[in-house]
Amino acid sequence: MEPADVGEHLRAVPEGEGLLTHLFVCTQPGYRGWTWAVSLSRAPQDDAPVTVNDVVLLPGDDAVVAPPWTPYRERIQPGDLSPGDILPPEEDDARLVPAWSAGDHLETLDRYFAREVGLGREWVLSLEGRDLAAQRWQDGDQGPDTPLAKQAPGRCDSCGFLVSLAGRLADRFGVCANGSANDDGRVVALDHGCGAHSGARLSRSAGPQKLPEPTLDTVTVDDVDDL
C-alpha cells in the first residue's frame, strides 16, 4: 500500500473494548468502491501504545468483485469433455446405486450371487437418477414442447424410424434412427416429433406449382436505359 492509494477518512467503527477500525477511501486504480480498513487496538492503561492489528481492503456496495466460486462439477456442461478428460461420479452420487440392490434385470435371489461373482454392472441408475434423466429429456430439445415438435406432422411414437428402448423408460422414450432427421441417434420423447416423420407427405400447396403460359407484351414500350 502506497500513501497515494489512501483517500479521505470515512468513519471509525468501534469493534469492542480497546478495538477500533478506521475506514478510508481507496484511490488505487481499479478499486473503485473499495475501502481501506485499519484495525487498531490499545490496552486499558493510559500510557499503552496503539497497535495496528491489520490493514485490509474491503469491497463496498458498488465495488467490482469476482463472482462467487462455483465448483467445477457445477460449471461443466454437456459437450465440455474432450478426449482423455475424466469426470468420475461423486462418492455419494444419488443417481447411482449398487446393481445388486436395484436389479439390472436380475431376479431378487440372483442379485447377491451376481455381486459375489462379479457379473453384470457394478452400478445402475437409482430411481432418482432415472427420474432426473427422464425429466431432463422431456424438458430438452427432444421433448414435446419445442417448436419443431409442435409443428410436426406426427409424433415419434407413430414414426417408423423410432427404435424402442428396453426397461422402465420404454413407455416414454425411444431412439431416433432417421439419418435425415435432426435427432438421429438421440433419445426422443414419444410425444416429440419433427418434419422427417415416416408418415409425412407433401401437401398440394407445398408441391411444385405449374407456371402459366408466357405472355408476349406488344403494348408496353421498354425503357432501354433501365436494361
UniProtKB/TrEMBL annotation:
It comes from Aeromicrobium halocynthiae. It comes from the Bacteria. Pfam families: DUF3027. This is DUF3027 domain-containing protein.
